[in-house]
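Hi L., both proteins are below.
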Amino acid sequence: MENSAELSGKYLGTISNDFIKVCDTLKEASYQLRARKISSYPIFPLSKVRLPIGQVLLEKKEVGTDWNYYFSFLEEFEQRELVTEDKKQDFINNYKDPDEFCCLFVVDEEFTKFVFIPYPED
């Protein structure tokens, strides 16, 4: 598991362009997951192909993005052993304020990484 706010140039542009289009929806989904006490640690997997992680939130063909967006949370990542017990505390320690940052789990052919991207200021 690697947490980083930095993306390679290959991903920075496409994810940033998409994020502007979907950030309000992701922020609201994050709020709802926390408000309903489903999880304190929302995670938004994104991929260009279908993923078996989480539930589909936004499909690229429907919202005009390059990526499909899913919603999930730490507990599902633990169940699927994507975050192992010995790395759980590291994840929690690195998790940024979900009111200010979106936790993305970027999945591509040669790239799988947790990325925290700030929500645009209102």
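That was the first. Here is the second:
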Amino acid sequence: MRTTLKIEEFAQFLLGIFLFSTLEYSWWWFVALFFVPDLGMLGYLLNKKVGAFTYNVFHNKAIAIAFILLGMFFLGEIYTLVGVILFSHSSFDRILGYGLKYPDSFKHTHLGNIGK
């Protein structure tokens, strides 16, 4: 099952790259912004519960898709860009086994424990 999930996430990562290619931004923007969603980890400086919440906000694909759609239909390309970066980064993280976090530990994710 893990392989199937990784293939699915890789396909979504490729979709994110395709969606970025439809935007009017240079490719260096994709590279420069790709790891910005990891700023959500800064919440762990306060405590595990806040850290899990902030990490999950920045890595939630529903939020990413909402930004993409709001940008495409109402708010403009910058919102689409934010959504595409969030979506692509989240897919990439999940390929590596980094899932959404539970509030008890950074290593406890919806995909299982990290470093198992």
